């Protein structure tokens, strides 16, 4: 009898070893987003940036698709960037958006959307003028700007945080539009700090900021 029980146990273990493992998700686990410092003592609508300096803020929305079938049904290739920013220089190719000739230029807000993976590929972007505060930036708003370029950033839930130069606020979300398609949306709002007018090229538009005076 003991031999029979032992044989049954060995067979059971062998069958369990032959069974394929339970499949896990075919997409990565989202990493926690960095925390920001709560903002206090600011006045909504105030801009303390010195003349000749211009804050640049950029919102990047990355839509990343994961599918066992190769592509999600809503996959799309996009390709229409209108500006570039590298090495501290902002260059507009065409179409400065949201600009009012009767208002002063405070700074610039770049909006970039990209598709990746099973959602297609490519990037499109638009550059917007910041001419008054508060300023809507996606589902957040810039309430005030300090002299060093620090932003008082109000999130969708109404809470406001400091976003310092070279700091980013990141929001992740995910959903399944269809059984074999998983979408991860990464929204990253980066405060690139203050730019000099000489480092901003608005494609010869009359809205180009003043150059920094030479001493």
Describe what this molecule looks like in 3D.
About 4% of the residues have low confidence. β13 and β14 form a beta hairpin. The protein is built from 1 helix and 15 strands. It has one domain. It is globular, with a radius of gyration of 25 Å.
Number of domains: 1
Principal-axes geometry comes out as: globular
Low-confidence stretches: 6-13
> What is the rounded Rg?
25 Å
Q: What's the helix-strand series?
A: HEEEEEEEEEEEEEEE
Major pleated sheet: 7 strands, mixed
Beta-strand content estimate:
over 45%
Question: What is the arithmetic mean of pLDDT?
Answer: 86
Summed up, the helix count is: 1
Counting helices, strands and paired strands, the structural category is: mainly beta
Distance between the termini: 101 Å
- Give a count of the beta strands, DSSP E runs of length 2 or more: 15
- Helicity, in percent? under 10%
């Amino acid at each position: 009898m003991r031999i029979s029980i032992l044989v049954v146990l060995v067979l059971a273990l062998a069958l369990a070893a032959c069974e394929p493992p339970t499949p896990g998700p075919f997409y990565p686990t989202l990493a926690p987003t960095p925390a920001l410092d709560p903002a206090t003592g600011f006045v909504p609508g105030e801009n303390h940036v010195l003349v000749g300096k211009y804050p640049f803020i950029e919102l990047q929305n990355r839509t990343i698709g994961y599918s066992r079938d190769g592509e999600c049904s809503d996959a799309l290739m996009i390709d229409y960037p209108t500006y570039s920013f590298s090495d501290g220089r902002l260059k507009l190719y065409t179409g400065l958006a949201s600009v009012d000739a009767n208002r002063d230029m405070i700074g610039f807000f770049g909006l970039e959307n990209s598709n990746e993976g099973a959602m297609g590929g490519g990037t499109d972007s638009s550059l917007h003028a910041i001419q008054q505060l508060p300023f809507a930036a996606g589902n957040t708003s810039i309430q005030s700007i300090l002299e060093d370029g620090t932003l008082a950033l109000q999130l969708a839930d109404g809470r406001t945080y400091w976003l310092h130069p070279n700091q980013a606020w990141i929001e992740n979300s995910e959903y399944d539009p269809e059984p074999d398609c998983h979408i991860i949306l990464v929204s990253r709002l980066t405060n690139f700090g203050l730019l000099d007018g000489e480092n901003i090229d608005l494609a010869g538009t009359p809205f180009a900021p003043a150059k920094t005076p030479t001493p």
